[in-house]
Amino acid sequence: MKVAVMQPYFFPYIGYFQLINAVDVFVFYDDVDYIKNGWINRNRILMNGKSHYVTVPCIKASSNKLINSIQYDSTSKDCRKIVKTIKQAYGKAPYFEKVFPMIERVFSASTNQISSLAQRSLVVVSTYLNLQTKFKISSVDFPESKGMDKADRLISICQAINATQYINAIGGKELYDKEYFQKKGVDLIFLSPNKIEYKQFGPDFTPWLSIIDVLMFNPIEHIKKHLNQYELL
Distance (Å, rounded) from C-alpha 233 to C-alpha 231? Predict the structure, then answer.
């Protein structure tokens, strides 16, 4: 059994979905500190040939609050503008007609929590790509682990579902020790995405944009190949 644990991000880049696809169970880490200026409420799309941020406006967001306690203003002009901006940016993309209704469904959800919105973006895309990974939520499924040290909490989550491998994004390489996890009966592995390119509108390629960009320019079978372009370290 393989497991990964990550904060829920808003339509993140393809590396996040590589992590989802690489495990049997993916846990949304929603009861940890919110990350300001991170990827929980924003991402980048291709707009007029350049990288452009789309940001969900959150209410009194703070790194002193838990992710699942942060709300966003679904009725604000800035929030409604996101869908319009995506439509404007990708209206002529080859897979726009298939992908855009999915994006609209994400924003039609009856929630004001940024955590729920981000999770919805991840689950909807995973369903579109027919990924078989099961999703769990840390605050719901593993509340007993709250308050533990970072590494011990991840190990506790693995043990709770009998997972023998914990796969982490490459950024965690400086945070976690493989030997410590091994002593607890869990193999710690880091996923490092390889370089991925595909045809966008122009001759130049803008890398590591939101999964929205990947979806707009690629058929599902090509995306599935991209999902396996990584190294496990």
Answer: 6
